[in-house]
Amino acid sequence: MFGQYFYNKHLRNTVIAFGTIFNSIGVRRYNSAGEAVSSLRVPLMYAPREKFLARLQQQTQLGSGDEEKVAITLPRLSFEMTGVSYDPSRKINKNLKYKKAKANDDNKVFSQYAPVPYNVGFNLYSFTANSDDGLQIVEQILPFFQPDYTVTFIESQTMDVKRDIPFVLNSVDYEDTYDGDFTSNRRIIYTMNFTAKIYLYGPITSGAVIRKTSADLYTKMNTENPSRQERVTITPNPSGADADDDYTFTETLEFFEDGLNYDEQSGTDK
Fold first, then answer.
1. Which of 97, 145, 221, 240 is the most exposed place for a label (fewest CB within 10 A)?
2. How high is the pLDDT of residue 158?
């Protein structure tokens, strides 16, 4: 089982999808007459909260010495993946197998076992220097989560699988902090916690298309030499039909006496 390399990029695509949801947030600044005098798009990046705060605290040293750097401007958005956990409430039969005909080859089929449900945790952070910017950002996010926002994923182009993945908003926390006096280095931080309910898939295998099945029926199974009495064979009609064609199944019965193939019409062994 282990050692067979595969990489379906489901976790990676989930992180990308989460960031894409929030990459078009903007804020506007108004004058005393209520007229918009400026607008800006809030930058978004993948960064832990602690790392971002440490960078803001270092800005008092910017511009000194030979290591001059560019200060981080607010408002900003950042997000991070916080964990992955199994979700037993969405469990399905692990032996269920999905199959899809291989393109340009009617004799081959792709197969993949049923996916496994997992919850992926995310935190989205809003960093602003004034209260109104923070409120604008939050109000552009919260109305879309009731409490979830659904994104359609192409989970597998090979298996042609699409699924609607909900991103659930669990909580919103607020923090207003100052460094030094109350007129400098103010940081208003909103922390929004989300859960993405995704599915993870195993490797995709390829095999031949099954075009004939047979089942043997026996009697006296408790003896050392069981006696085969009947064989049922099922084949599609026409035999070269694929999933897009109209087809039926043909059933053939063979009868046996004492384990020998017996022709019921002639009454002789074959």
1. 221
2. 82
Asked if residue 3 is part of any domain, the answer here is no
The contacts of residue 65 (CB under 8 Å, 6+ apart) are none
- Residues 122 and 174 grouped into a single domain: yes
Distance between CA atoms of residues 25 and 42, nearest Å = 6
Task: Give the domain extent around 115.
Answer: 10-206
Residues 171-209 pLDDT 10s:
999 998 766 555 556 789 999 999 999 999 999 888 776
Q: Are residues 45 and 171 in the same domain?
A: yes
CATH number where 39 lies: 3.30.2000.40
β-sheet bridge partners, residue 262: 255, 269
Same domain, 199 and 216: no
Higher-pLDDT residue of 48 and 146 is 146
Name the residue with higher pLDDT: 35 or 71: 35
The pLDDT of 135-152, averaged and rounded, is 95
Task: Give the pLDDT of residue 69.
Answer: 55
Entry pTM: 0.72
Q: Note whether residue 164 is domain-resident.
A: yes
Indicate whether 163 and 46 sit together in one domain: yes
- Judge if 21 and 151 occupy the same domain: yes
Amino acid symbol at 44:
L
pLDDT given at position 149: 96
Number of domains making up the chain: 2
